[in-house]
Write a structure and sequence with these properties.
By secondary structure, the protein is an alpha/beta fold. It has ten helices and ten strands. The longest helix is centred in the last third of the chain and has 27 residues. The model has no long low-confidence stretch (mean pLDDT 95).
Length: 338
C-alpha cells in the first residue's frame, strides 16, 4: 500500500511516499529556518506564505524520487492538527484538492501521532503498547500508546514546552534561532554545576511538566548579570540548562513507566535529537532494564515520512476524512477517537 504524506504544521514543507507504512520511498523537506532566523523565531504569516509557494514542488519531487505516479498512490495523508493554523491550512487544503481531483482517500493525521510513528520507520519491529515521551518546540507529553491509533496522555506541560524552553534560554544567551541545537553544542564545553537552576514542580500532578519557571530563571540570571556589568558563561549555562531539562523529562517518564508497568519506552519529537535527553534516557532505561526505542536524528524534526507512516496505520484502521476536513490549531491526541 502506497501512502503520500504531507506535513506543513510549522516551518517545514514536507512530503513523502511510504510503502506499507515503514518502507520510505522518498522524503522531501523544504525548510524555512534561514528566513525565520533573522526574526529569532517562526513568523506565522511568513511560514504560511512559504508553504503556499513550496508545497506543489515538494509533493512533485517526493513522487518523482519515489518512482511512483500519483495514480499509483492508494491514499493521501496530511497533518491537520495541531500547529500554526495558517500553515496547517495550506497542507490540508492542498491534500483535499488532490484527493478530490484523483478520487483518492483522504487520511487526517495528528502531528504528535506522526512524531511517534517516526519510530516505526526506524524500528519496524516496534509494536504497541508502550510509553512514549514526546518533546518538541510546541509539545511535551508522556503518552501511553495503546495501539497504532489509540493514545492516552498521562503527563504534559502546563505552560512552556521543553523545546520552547531550550530556544528561549538560547536566545537569552545570544545564540541564534533555532536555539536548541546551539545549547546542545555549547553544553559539551561547559560545567553544568556552575549555575543552580530550579526544578519546577506541578502540585498534585506528578507526571506533568512545567518549564516556564526554569526559562524565567535563566533569563533573569542573564539580565541581572548584564545590569551589573557582568557576563554569564554561555557554555556553563547551556550545560546547566541541558542537564536540568533532560533530568526533568526523563525522571517523570521513568516514574510513569514504573507506576504504570511499562518496560518499553519510546522517545519522539524534535527534542529527541538532543544529546542530553538521549543520553539520560538511555542511562535510566539501562538502570531499570527498560527497552528503549529512539528515532535517528534525520526523523526527529518535522517530516513527511512520519505522516505517511501514521497515515498508513490510520487508513488501515478506517480513519479517513471527507472534503469537510479542517485544520485545527490545538487538539489533544487522546481526544481523536472520542
Amino acid at each position: 500500500m502506497l501512502i503520500l504524506g504531507i506535513e506543513s504544521s510549522c516551518d517545514e514543507t514536507a512530503a513523502s511516499v511510504s510503502e506499507n507504512g515503514t518502507n520510505i520511498l522518498s522524503s522531501v523537506i523544504s525548510t524555512q529556518i534561514e528566513e525565520h532566523k533573522k526574526y529569532g523565531g517562526v513568523v506565522p504569516e511568513i511560514a504560511s506564505r512559504r508553504h503556499s509557494e513550496n508545497i506543489l514542488g515538494v509533493v512533485k519531487e517526493a513522487l518523482e524520487k519515489s518512482g511512483k505516479t500519483l495514480e499509483e498512490i492508494d491514499a493521501i495523508a496530511v497533518t491537520y492538527a495541531p500547529g500554526l493554523i495558517g500553515a496547517l491550512l495550506v497542507g490540508v487544503n492542498f491534500a483535499k484538492g488532490l484527493a478530490m481531483a484523483t478520487g483518492k482517500p483522504l487520511v487526517p493525521v495528528h502531528h504528535i501521532a506522526g512524531h511517534i510513528a517516526s519510530n516505526y520507520i526506524a524500528h519496524p519491529e516496534l509494536e504497541p503498547p508502550y510509553l512514549c515521551l514526546v518533546a518538541s518546540g510546541g509539545h511535551s507529553h508522556i503518552i501511553e500508546v495503546l495501539s497504532h491509533t489509540d493514545f492516552r496522555v498521562v503527563g504534559k506541560t502546563r505552560d512552556d514546552a521543553a523545546g520552547e524552553c531550550f530556544d528561549k534560554c538560547a536566545r537569552a544567551l545570544g545564540f541564534p534561532y533555532p536555539g536548541g541545537v546551539h545549547i546542545d553544542k555549547a553544553s559539551s564545553l561547559g560545567n553544568p554545576d556552575a549555575y543552580k537552576l530550579p526544578v519546577p514542580r506541578v502540585a498534585g500532578s506528578q507526571y506533568d511538566f512545567s518549564f516556564s519557571g526554569l526559562k524565567t530563571a535563566v533569563i533573569n540570571t542573564v539580565h541581572n548579570a548584564s545590569q551589573k556589568g557582568e557576563t554569564v558563561n554561555a557554555n556553563d549555562m547551556a550545560a546547566a540548562v541541558q542537564r536540568t531539562i533532560s533530568e526533568i523529562l526523563v525522571s517523570k517518564t521513568i516514574l510513569a513507566a514504573r507506576d504504570l508497568g511499562y518496560k518499553k519506552i519510546v522517545l519522539a519529537g524534535g527534542v529527541s535529537a538532543n544529546s542530553g535527553v538521549r543520553n539520560k534516557l538511555t542511562e535510566e532505561c539501562q538502570k531499570n532494564n527498560f527497552e528503549l526505542f529512539m528515532p535517528p536524528l534525520s526523523l526527529c524534526g518535522d517530516n513527511g515520512a512520519m505522516i505517511a507512516c501514521q497515515g498508513y496505520f490510520n487508513y488501515k484502521a478506517g480513519i479517513t476524512a471527507d472534503a469537510g476536513l479542517n485544520a485545527v490549531a490545538t487538539m489533544p491526541i487522546d481526544k481523536l477517537n472520542s
